Amino acid sequence: MLTLAVSTLAAQQQDSAVVQRMRDIETRIQIDVDDFKGREFYEPRKKGKMQTHRTCFFPYISYSPEGSSRTLFGYVGTWTDDWLMLDGVIVLIGEERYTYTLDGLELLNLRGSDVTTGGYSVSCREWVHLPAKMGDSEFAMFQAIADADDTTEVRVRAHGTDYSRDWTMRPAERRAWRDLVFYYRNFGLRAQGEDALVLRTDYQPRKPPIVEYAAPALHPKPRPHDPIKVAYPPGLVPELVEDTVLVFAVVDTAGTVSEAHIEKGSRFAALDSAALAAVQEAHFSPGEFHAQKAVVKMVVSVPVAPAQKAEE
Questions:
Q1: Cβ atoms 220, 248 nearer than 8 A
Q2: Ramachandran region of residue 132, left (φ > 0), alpha (ψ -120 to 50) or beta?
Q3: Domains contained in the chain, number
Q4: Are residues 222 and 143 in the same domain?
């Protein structure tokens, strides 16, 4: 029984470490959604920057929510002065050589090209998408890139039927391979639902509604956590002056006062200033409008009296 308990605890700790790493990786990836194809693409956030280089080789995940199927792709891109007729890649990891070449119908579907002109110069842009799933022989190359330590050089050749282009894999590319291969293997532990929305490239944070305190659907309404205490102006104590000051306040979704001013003051500016300062320093329970935290405009009634009078 003791052995079983120790094994269970070790498994839970391992799962926790995997989840923690997945959350860390999600700070460096984004989700691009194609509603027409019904697919989600998990890509490095630095994808655009990597594609500005003359050569690049980085991974991304294509996922179909309907079919619950996913594929890990390697994207090879080149900018050259002449056509390579790109068809694959050769990777050298230390002394180990890996080759991935497309042909036939795959090459027709997974290869693309474009031409850009600038003045008298012409640049030929080519790219191929190299798919692999766990268990495929091609996946071994992707895993080897991810597993290569920092002291091992990773060299890449974008291979074409006419020409080729060589380079040493850059740190950003290597980080992307480590992240996306691990993410692909542990895809079931990815952020989902509301947590995954912030990863989408089209994500726009929903602004909280701004409502009046009297709004019928505002429930619960903001309430101060503690009684609002007023630092009574010392100069007024002998006169035993007391009054009520109305302070307009805007309470944000965190329960703090983001804006405040005197709505209706007393006869004394010192009393007004003391009431205003007390409201600005107060902390409220947030209000909710249709079950969503809201920014609430409200008027706070603040009684101001000398300490000895207030105690009576």
A1: no
A2: beta
A3: 2
A4: no
| C-beta pairs of 151-157 under 8 Å, 24+ apart in sequence | 152/93, 152/94, 153/92, 153/94, 154/91, 154/92, 154/93, 155/91, 155/92, 156/55, 156/57, 156/89, 156/90, 156/91, 156/92, 157/89, 157/90, 157/91, 157/92
- Residue 194: CB atoms within 10 A of its CB come to 7
Query: Each residue of 111-151: pLDDT tens digit?
Result: 999 987 765 667 899 999 999 999 899 999 999 999 999 99
Name the residue range of residue 219's domain: 210-311
Q: Out of 137, 166, 197, pick the residue that ends a domain.
A: 197
Tokens found for residue 137: 């022989």
The DSSP element (H or E) to which 45 belongs, if any, is none
Give me the pLDDT at residue 147, please.
Answer: 97
Quick one: which H or E segment has residue 109?
A: helix 104-110
**Could you tell me which of 123, 21, 144 has the C-alpha nearest to residue 74?**
144
Q: Are 234 and 296 contained in the same domain? A: yes
Could you tell me which residues come within 8 angstroms of residue 51 by beta carbon, excluding any fewer than 6 positions away?
Answer: 77
Q: What is the pLDDT of residues 227-237, one digit of tens each?
A: 888 877 776 65
